[in-house]
Design brief:
The chain has 435 residues and is an alpha/beta fold. It contains 16 helices and 14 strands.
Length: 435
């Protein structure tokens, strides 16, 4: 045991009336919601990178956090792993997620980096057995090192592509070894700054080839988890190839991977793409590629991905409504891709941030379940589209009527439809009853 969280006890559920800042007021893992335990619905995971690797810097200033594992190479990485599992236990989160660069220092060579990764995986394996904490997903950082400044899979240099492929393989091996339930590909620099030096067709084909290699290796190694692709617009590359869920789905269809890969959707990325989070979740569910989520929020006055802990219950509730309607998570879960503000420098602040985020998600889940159980909202939607249940409407939808057939019916029956109210204000009021 380290003394990083010295004097802090395990966080427990105390109910809505509690004023204890180190207690859950709404997250009760054992509470039954729609026939299933709350912790089984939410499947919380803690992000290793923001919680333990981020130094508190911003574009105008450097490190504000002082952590005993910073600048200590492998000894620091081992201490960081010790502290990480202490936090997992204090919060009672069932899962965690990591990039390779979060957990081990960079080596001079690929072989050295991989050796260090496996050494930390040895520690993880032991800690996971001791605590029962599981791995929701692993991934490779293919964006921070300067070798990836022109992309990883989409780099004009085939040696960078090869290095990225080898790095992914190493991380997939560790993810499977640790019984991870998913593997994520996060294309931080898979895009372009300017078309002046870019061949779009080549880069897209390279990205498609890399993803196909990953899928092939998944089946070869016998990995039973899900391959997830994370949509991300604009930053740091101005034109990202994985801009949003619909863009990713089109990409998957083009390369015949729509039945092999799902998406990991982040709130902050959805906002940067000009969408709401529930839009992206609903779109993924519609396309059949909903996999997992990264739960955070952006500062709406900033054009950057600020990765703050969630605190907006109505937004979260609408997202979980669509997740529940889609059948809930399978291998995915709720990962807190969220970080402290750079002035929140104390260890206890890590607990405050996660407690608030977990309570917000719990309230959102319960509100979403209440909306479904009440049935008024679903009944309205069914009624609004009820006309499509008509035999003639179904014939149009199934391709049993030509344009000429449809036109003839409009003329014969003198069809002259009148607009009907969409009742948006009524629906907003209805949803607010639950959140």
């Amino acid at each position: 045991m380290s003394d990083f969280f010295k004097g802090i006890d395990k966080v427990r559920y105390e109910g809505p009336e509690s004023t204890n800042p180190l207690a859950y007021r709404y997250y009760n893992p054992e509470e039954i919601v729609l026939g299933k335990r709350m912790d089984e619905h939410l499947r919380f995971a803690l992000a290793y990178w923001h919680s333990f690797a981020w130094e508190g810097g911003d574009p105008f200033g450097g490190r504000t956090f002082e952590r005993p594992w910073f600048d200590s190479e492998m000894e620091g990485a081992k201490l960081k792993a010790e502290v990480a599992f202490e936090l997992f236990e204090l919060l009672g989160v069932p899962y965690f997620c990591f990039h390779d660069a979060d957990v081990r220092p960079e080596g001079e060579t690929y072989a050295e980096s991989t050796k260090k990764l496996n050494a930390i995986a040895d520690i993880f394996e032991e800690k996971m057995a001791q605590t029962g904490t599981k791995l929701l997903w692993g991934t490779a950082n293919l964006f921070s090192n300067r070798r990836f400044m022109g992309g990883a899979a989409t780099n004009p240099d085939p040696d960078v592509f090869a290095y990225a492929a080898a790095t992914i393989k190493a991380n997939m091996d560790v993810t499977m070894r640790l019984k991870g339930e998913n593997y994520v590909l996060w294309g931080g620099r898979e895009g372009y700054e300017t078309l002046l030096n870019t061949k779009l067709d080549k880069e897209l084909d390279q990205l498609g080839r890399m993803l196909s290699l990953v899928v092939d290796y998944k089946h070869k190694m016998g990995f039973k988890g899900t391959i997830l692709l994370e949509p991300k617009p604009q930053e740091p590359t101005k034109h990202q190839y994985d801009f949003d869920v619909s863009t990713v789905y089109g990409f998957l269809k083009k390369y015949g991977l729509e039945n092999e890969v799902k998406v990991n959707i982040e709130v902050g990325h959805a906002i940067l793409a000009g969408h709401t989070f529930e839009h992206e979740v609903a779109m993924a569910a519609t396309h059949g590629i909903l996999g997992s989520i990264d739960m955070n929020r952006n500062d709406y006055q900033s054009g950057w991905d600020t990765d703050q802990f969630p605190n907006n219950v109505p937004e979260v509730a609408l997202a979980y409504y669509h997740i529940l309607k889609a059948g809930g998570f399978a291998t995915g879960g709720t990962n807190f891709d969220a970080k402290l503000r750079r002035q929140s420098i104390d260890p206890v602040d890590l607990l405050y941030g996660h407690i608030g985020g977990m309570d917000t998600c719990a309230r959102g889940l319960k509100a979403a379940a209440a909306i479904i159980e009440d049935g008024s909202y679903d009944a309205f939607l069914e009624d609004r589209y009820a006309g499509w249940n008509d035999a003639e409407a179904q014939a149009m939808l199934k391709g049993e009527r030509s344009l000429e057939d449809i036109t003839a019916r409009v003329e014969r029956d003198n069809i002259n439809p009148q607009p009907k109210s969409g009742r948006q204000e009524y629906l907003e009021n209805l949803i607010n009853r639950f959140v």
